[in-house]
Every structure is written in structure tokens, then in C-alpha cells.
Design goal:
Elements: E1 3-11, E2 17-18, H1 20-30, E3 34-39, H2 50-62, E4 67-72, H3 79-91, E5 95-98, H4 112-123, E6 128-131, H5 141-150, E7 156-159, H6 168-174, E8 178-181, H7 187-197, E9 202-203, H8 213-222, H9 227-239
Parallel strand pairs: 1-3, 3-4, 4-5, 5-6, 6-7, 7-8, 8-9
Antiparallel strand pairs: 1-2
Helix pairs in contact: 3-4, 6-7
Length: about 250
């Protein structure tokens, strides 16, 4: 089984767009069994991403065997964002993505709103997919370290492995509840993680349409993984993070 843990649906401010039919077509072409779909940074998301989140839930209900839905929020809106997460949990969402750079916020777990959102995920044992990169202090691996310290039971997936942040491996070593999603991660970083921590902390994702499953799968082939390690990365690791499958 192959699960793509990072796929976008809807229309983005940057001009990118992708509907469910297009996603399913790429999945079929790339032999992807299941995909986690997440709203883009929508052009008009409103204060809560409600319409975009509803699109995700609709897709999950129509294709429960193939689509795993993650919500998206803008914590700037405080209580409205919290209530939207609560609503989505009641609708059967499997996790949450936060994108600190796109929504221009600092995911400081000591901030009351951020704390309340993360605490709700923790209560329901839902994973957090957090965009990480080296562009700003609100997206680097230091902030992942801070969240993981505050919430040691919360499953945190660092999308893109910090985009080659030099602290990626050390944060993984420090926190057993932190994983990386592999899209745009360099081979060097992936090799270091495999050597120091094994395959259990790597989760396959493509970030479709910004990359493609075939590209990201080819990258894993270069690593010459054992069948067991490949299975962990392609499906087992994400399935072990409490996705509330019925």
C-alpha cells in the first residue's frame, strides 16, 4: 500500500488549483492507494476555511477507501478557528494542517489560541501536519521543538523535513513524537535520518501539485530501502498516528 500524506485540493492564491477528479487520476497513474488531502491557501478562505474544509470532508465521505481528510485553519481568528476545528472533528476529520508562513502567524504553543488548538488535537489523538522550511522563524525546526516539548504526546509531522534545516535530525532525536514528511526533503537529510533513527520517523508525501508522487517515489528508490523500511515509509508510519479509521 502507498499513502500520499500531502495532497492539496481547491484553489490557491498562487494560482494553483486541483479538484478531486484530478487528484484521483494522479493517484491511479502513480499507484497511490490513499491520499491525505488538505485545502490550499485559498483565495477567499473566510475566517475559518469552512468551505475548503467542507470540500475535504465531502471528498472523504465520497471516497472513504481512498481519501483521508485533514482540516486547515487560520489561528489569527482565535475562537472561530477553534470552533471550526471542533466542528471538523465532529465531521470525522483525521488531522490538521497549519501553515505558519501562509497564514502569517507564530505557532507558539504558549499562546492561548495556539495552545487551545493543539490541546484539542491532543485530546482527540489527531496528528498535526506543520509546514516547515528555512524561510522564517515561524517555520523552522526550532518551532517544532518548542511544540513537541509542550505537547509530548501530540503526533507532529514536519512537512518537507524543515527543507534541509540543520536541526531536523536533532529535533527528531530529541522528540519521539516528531516525524517528517518527505516531499522536497533532500536525499542527504533522508539518509541522515535513516542512519540515526531508522525508517520509522519518515512519512511519504508528494505535496501535489507542487511536486508529484512519481518524483517523490523515485527519490525513495535512490535510497535503496529494504522492503520493510519502504513499507514503513509508504504506509505503516502514517497509519500508526491515530487517523481514526472506522
Amino acid at each position: 500500500m502507498i499513502i500520499d500524506s500531502h495532497v492539496h485540493i481547491g484553489k490557491d492564491k498562487d494560482g494553483s488549483s486541483q479538484n478531486l477528479s484530478q487528484i484521483l487520476e494522479v493517484m491511479d497513474e502513480s499507484k497511490i492507494n490513499k491520499a491525505i488531502i488538505i485545502p490550499f491557501n485559498e483565495i477567499n478562505p473566510g475566517p475559518t476555511f469552512k468551505n475548503a474544509n467542507d470540500l475535504v470532508i465531502k471528498a472523504q465521505k465520497e471516497h472513504p477507501d481512498r481519501i483521508i481528510g485533514f482540516a486547515r485553519l487560520d489561528p489569527y481568528y482565535g475562537k472561530e478557528a477553534y470552533l471550526e476545528l471542533e466542528r471538523m472533528i465532529n465531521q470525522g476529520i483525521k488531522g490538521l494542517k497549519l501553515h505558519p508562513r501562509s497564514q502569517a502567524f507564530l505557532p507558539d504553543p504558549n499562546h492561548p489560541i495556539i495552545y487551545s488548538i493543539l490541546d484539542l488535537l491532543n485530546i482527540y489523538n489527531l496528528p498535526l501536519l506543520l509546514h516547515t522550511d528555512l524561510v522564517a522563524r515561524n517555520t523552522n525546526m526550532a518551532i517544532v521543538d518548542k511544540i513537541a516539548t509542550k505537547f509530548p504526546e501530540l503526533k507532529i509531522i514536519a512537512a518537507h523535513a524543515g527543507k534541509n534545516d540543520s536541526n531536523t535530525v536533532s529535533v527528531l532525536q530529541k522528540h519521539e513524537n516528531v516525524y517528517i514528511e518527505s516531499s522536497f526533503a533532500s536525499l542527504i537529510v533522508l539518509k541522515k535520518i535513516l542512519i540515526k533513527l531508522g525508517a520509522e520517523r519518515i512519512i511519504f508525501g508528494s505535496d501535489l501539485p507542487y511536486s508529484h508522487p512519481k518524483i517523490e517515489l523515485a527519490k525513495l528508490e535512490i535510497l535503496e530501502l529494504s522492503p520493510s523500511d519502504k513499507k514503513k515509509i509508504l504506509s505503516d508510519n502514517i497509519l500508526n498516528l491515530g487517523l481514526r479509521f472506522k
